[in-house]
Amino acid sequence: MKLIINNLKFKITNFIKHNKTEVLLLILILSVAAFFRLYRISDYMTFLSDEGRDVIIVRRFITELHPPLIGPGTSVGNMYLGPLYYYMMAPALLLANFSPVGPAIQIALLGVVTVFFVWFVGRKWFPSGEKVAWGALIVAGLYAISPTVIDFSRSSWNPNIMPFFSLLSIYSIWKVYESRGALRGVGCWLITLGISYAFVLQSHYLGLLLAPTLFVFWLLTLFKIKNDKLVKAIFVRSSLLAFLLFALLMSPLLIFDIRHNWQNYNAIKIFFTSSRDVGLPLLAYLSKIWTTSLMLFTNLLMAKNMYLGTLAVLVSIIFLGWIYKKHFLRGAYLLLFLWIAVGLIGIAAYRGQIYDHYLGFLFPAPFLLLGAFAQKVLDSKNLLAKILFSLTIGCVVFFSLQNDPPFVNPGYQMPRVISVAKVIQEKAGGAKFNLAAISDFDDRSVYLYFLTIWGARVVDTDPSTSEFTQTDQLFVVCEYEKSRCDPTHSPSAWITRFGWTKIVDEWEVWGGTLYKLGHANSK
């Protein structure tokens, strides 16, 4: 271990010594990435029902030593993820004295590390003929300021860790493939692959779409060493150990599925195969691939500018065709191609609405593809191509910065929750009370979390023990405009469990309305 550390120190020192310009530019890019992710993070971070649920569970884990055996439920499909993200959150929440900002900062720092990782992989995969790897620096810089990437890099949410662990999985299998059977290090990279891919799957099940690419490159590695029995035996044994570690990390989900009639397996199958499109299946499928490709390149790479996004997709298709014609479609190019192609083709099998976070396993891929293209352009002698490329990158930077903090207004989600929760605590007057919320996201948990850590006497209603869990007052937070609020007739389970209600009092709080309800038959 000491030898490995000393060797690493020597490589870093030597790189800095001979690449001072690139190191300084990289530090600047990482500083920009950190600024955009950490700037007023408590005001910009997302804090809705999912985030509230997560901090409640993780706080219970810390304070009551109640380890979760399954992770969060998905928003669609009636599926549950694994608990790895909860264990990852715990130290950050504890260090932040149970403030939800702690896990959000953790994600922001992981986002900065991902920017560095994008540069590192780009430099390894597509080295420059010059001293400075401009292609790798360009894509790291664009990843640092991408508005969509930043949005998912400053909030604590399980899909937000997927870009880093997806890239780590891809890079690990590449290192295994590049080893060409060499014994040194291959076992370590296989183990890294097993652990990182477990994190991918437990951040979102669409990480399954990485599996074909990983498996293809594992097979290619095996074929390269098939004539060396000793190396092959060690490779297979290391692969088995990596798989066992992966299975161990995934085992809580397997146990859950066995005990619940394969609920997750059946839900995943429905999630990928359900269809809500109308028209010829083949045409609808091809259309979905195109629109998903456009979404990936537009929202991530091209600062949400549709024209630049369309240009990026078309140039990517032409570029991939060119490298195929030039017989470059191998090694890192082949891995990158499979990563993007299999991901887009696979996600098109889901015919419902696709959201940006569904593409988390692909986040770094279009940037690395741009890095490959950028390096080819910059290494060429075509002055016109260099000028057009530079102008395009300038437009992307311009549009990106317009949509980055501090140039866009924060959502103030957590400050709003804290303000409303303080009013509830004050109006409760120290007595027990029940709590409900009327909103698009059923945000009761976010108010419940702060009221709980402040020691307010909030009680969850339970129909089986209503005599013990039903209080004399129910506070209802309505996040809609007042004309849409009707708390006494709301179908919310937290309100119906309280019984027949009447409005006792109401207050306008931060753009919403807070109601105090009592029992209809009370005086």
Question: What order do the helices and strands come in, and which of them pair?
Answer:
Layout: H1 2-18, H2 20-38, H3 41-44, H4 49-64, H5 84-95, H6 101-125, H7 134-145, H8 147-151, H9 162-179, H10 186-201, H11 211-224, H12 229-259, H13 263-273, H14 281-301, H15 306-325, H16 332-347, H17 364-379, H18 383-402, H19 413-428, E1 434-438, H20 444-453, H21 466-469, E2 474-478, H22 493-496, E3 501-509, E4 512-519
Parallel strand pairs: 1-2
Antiparallel strand pairs: 2-4, 3-4
Helix pairs in contact: 2-6, 2-7, 4-5, 4-20, 5-6, 6-7, 6-9, 6-17, 7-17, 9-10, 9-11, 10-12, 14-15, 16-17, 19-20
Q: How would you characterize the overall build of this protein?
A:
- The chain is mostly helical.
- The chain folds into two domains: 2-402, no CATH class; 415-519, no CATH class.
- The protein is built from 22 helices and four strands.
- The chain is globular and about 85 Å long.
- The chain starts with a helix and ends with a strand.
Keywords:
22 helices, 2 domains, single chain, 63% helix, 5% strand, 523 residues
Instruction: Tell me the span between the first and last alpha carbons.
Output: 74 Å
* Strand order within the widest beta sheet: 1-2-4-3
Query: How many structurally independent domains?
Result: 2
Order of helices and strands: HHHHHHHHHHHHHHHHHHHEHHEHEE
Class inferred from helices and paired strands: mainly alpha
Q: What portion of the residues fall into strands of 2 or more residues?
A: 5-15%
In a nutshell, what does this entry contain?
This protein has 523 residues and is mainly alpha-helical.
